[in-house]
Queue: 4 jobs
Job 1
Amino acid sequence: MNKLNNLKVLSYDLRKDVVDMIVEAKGGHIGGDMSVIDILICLYFKIMNISPENMDDPDRDRFVLSKGHSVEAYYAVLAAKGFLNIEEVKQQFSKFGSKYIGHPNNELPGIEMNSGSLGHGLPVCIGMALAGKMDRRNYRVYTVMGDGELAEGSVWEGAMAGGHYKLDNLCAVVDRNRLQISGSTEDVMAQDSQIERWKSFGWHTISVNGNDVDALEQAFTEARTIKGKPTVIIANTIKGYGSVVMENKANWHHKVPTQEEYEQIIADFASRKELALRE
């Protein structure tokens, strides 16, 4: 079994951690966690120069989870990388007085900025990338946005600035699961085609299966080779990915599984993990 398949197996272990976290806390954004977790795994285990050992290094790569409401997936990946203790996270997530709050908290190791007020991640990452150019640093900057988030005007101000300053040290990702809290993105605020929109702002564009770690790694590797413009990866994902209980259902944006649903979800994870082990 190669390293990529190991990450596929890991993805189902971390999905279980996320569901356990949400059940214990009695709240959380489970659907978007499931769609984004493969992107986070690929970034932290295959792509970014970031670890608990170098998190204060000025040349470390920077990451901002702009869709901060998917923090449960972020905490699970950070714990797997060694920044956090997963059992502590599960016990304390979203409890009164806990540091493991419902959006990224930069008082925790490995988190660059508090996020979750949608539309802020990309503009902040523009500043980080521009600072890297001005200081002649070698780091790269990454951000993940939700597709519902793209209705925010600040995203497109950031897109315009990124293209203008030719920030080839910047890579943005759109978690394109096509669902948001109120339903289909195309019903709420239509946004196809993503490719043409980002190209018009001077970005290199890549469209990829966002729940395939292998395909994601290839996309991020391509982004590193692009000179003179930033890159956006349109990660076509499935909301609730991993279990038929949740997949492609808008009401799982923010939902706590019943005991029966929990058992089916965990069984689905186990089945898909077994398939990954056989590859």
Job 2
Amino acid sequence: MYPAIDLAAGEKERGTFETLLTSPATRLEILVGKFGVVVLAGLLTAVIALVGLYIGVMQIREIPSALLTTILGILELRSILLLVSLLIPTTAFFAAILLSLSIFSKSFKEAQSMITPMMIVVIVPAFLGLMPGMSLNTITALIPILNVSLTTKAIIADTLTPMLLVEVYLSLIIVASVSLVICAWIFEREETIFRGS
């Protein structure tokens, strides 16, 4: 969230956004660079969290051996690779939305106040995915965030079917692409970039 806010609204406040736009780089190149930084920051955070979880679990001596075996089964290489592969389009989706809102904002503070309520929008479907009785099917595989939550649950339970995984990937890639196109459209508009100047 904060790299996206700083890379657009923060630059507007510092007055460096206009200077960046006068460079020989096209607006699309500038946007792709900013988008790449936000995606990389999101993925790096997720990978650090997974590594921290693994190290933390290995450091606790009081975990019963049966529970430790179960946890390590969840943290096996196949599961981690599947989870990280889900994170790539999900992170791209959120990076484009966050950048769009940040570009639209006049200031860092306004961007924060616009982006913070998005947490509720993310938490509700993620929480629904954790409820008993909810499972991944052809309909839930199309709903962003809920599909990631349910796919994660299926990966951990080792009940994931390849066709549903493909449907989830396609859904996430389409949603990420649409959000990036919208972000590019917002970035191309002069009245949006110089809003409040």
Job 3
Amino acid sequence: MDIMTCCIHGASSSTDTSGAVSVPIYQTATFSHPGVGLSTGYDYTRVQNPTREHLEKTLACLEGGIDALAFASGMAALTALMELFSPGDHLIVSNELYGGSYRLFFNLSTKNGLSIERVDPADLNQLEASFTVSTRAIFIETPSNPTMRVSDIAAISRLARQHNILLIVDNTFLSPYFQKPLALGADIVLHSGTKFLGGHNDALAGFLVVADPSISERLRFIYKTTGACLAPFDSWLLIRGIKTLAVRLDRQQQSAGRIAEWLQNHKKVTSVNYVGLPSHPDFELSQRQSSGYGSMISFELDSETTARQVLERVRLILYAESLGGVETLITYPILQTHADIPDEIRRSLGVTTRLLRLSVGLEHVDDLIADLEGALRD
């Protein structure tokens, strides 16, 4: 089944017999049993719910996995994922991480006895040199947040398999429409479903998609035990959002390409990070492992004053902390998404007071460029 068809029809499985075109919202906490020792297949919504099940099967279809688990947020998904590991286990993570992931890894996970090490995933020699007898997993974001560096998923996967190490990929920025990490050798895919999958800035969600039945079984046990499942109504919102994933991302990418080129030629912009620009250092790698470039851009300005001026002057573009929705959002990583990362790490990655991140939405691209042009005017 083509991914565009899968987005619309999903798993094509439902317990409903009414013929409803829209998947029903099973707004119930519990389910009655037909008899002692008998079950309809649903017992308690924390464990499974028909609406959420349809969503999960749709995500598994999109990512090419054998199972998907829907959580109340991306961070809830990542927190549950960390329960796969035990005190003393060593995890290698991207040197560039979303601030929430960094906060979890280097506060809660280390407190719980895990050893977390930051490594540049682009340097395969450095990555392999970091392996120890206790290394259990590699966690990467690609493209990274916010400077849009791309990691070679297939190459890292080959290295991980040689050492019996799990590879976990955060695929939030490209979604399964543009990138399929499991097909490239990853073991687990993480999503903040709040972003492109939901697409409308109206629901929090997170996902884990897996390729191995044994990992699925372990995560399902953690899932029902820790209980951060996605509610039925929010599951329905994600089902609805995914129906337009393909058409949204195609249009957003088209606009992002034009905006990135326009930013490159502006006198107050000193650098532009967009994977779809031939000048991007990972452009060729991205072409090999992805079918698109997405709609996330970060760009550096000539001064902090100019950066703050843009944030205060934009009118159509919204100054807000999120991404992937139909509305174009601009974010100040140093004060928002990456505020909890130590300053010396931010500086080493280029997350400065001059860097802004743009999530391109579905407004007309000429209007977006006009808004940026006005915000950058002397």
Job 4
Amino acid sequence: MPPEPVARSADPWARLRATTTARIGLGRTGDAMALSDVLAFQLAHARARDAVHTPLDVAALVARLPGAVVVRSAAPDRPTYLRRPDLGRQLSPDGMLPRGAHDAVFVIADGLSASAVMAHAVEVMEATVARLPGFRIAPPVVATQARVAIGDDIGEALGARLAVVLIGERPGLTVAESLGVYLTYAPKRGTRDSARNCLSNIHGQGGVSVTAAADTLAWLMRAALQRQLTGVGLKEAAGLALDHNTGTNQPPIPLTS
């Protein structure tokens, strides 16, 4: 009698792959990875490279942001920006910004993913501003070849109490359009990163939603002005931010005079 066929066991990685976008338990064809997995990896890598090198569509952003001011960093071009992070942190000497009495300035910076900025930055800013009645908001600033710390120069020049930098995050091989937000109280050149609050992974592929980001950012901005600090000394109080299970807003923190 011929031997009975041996039943094939279920894929032990299937349940894990269903819970993450990480590349785990990939199959093989002989000694090599399956062609479909190789092609998917190459496509993800190409998208990440495109996110880094595609220039920000400044004209399209300005069209959506009436009154926006456009500035650039001290890095004259993209290759220099990628090689010299220090220049991306400094406002170009020819940047002219009108000083005033502002509670906050929103800086939309290309960072390492202009596509993330185009996809999410304006929506996050508008949703946050809508949650901040009574705030004196400076005209939005669009910054090119920029890194997070350029918000220090911009906030100091404008006289803003808070600088909010919305910037394209370093793309990965799963998501190339992830937006980050950095909040700094009393911005000035030389501010340490430990004096900032960061919200990251804002994107539409399982990341933080625009609504959730705006709720948290608005709470942090109110708390920053009340306590006169940001960074490691300011932690989000989950019970005071939006209750994402019920969708109800908790009482806001009042502004200081």
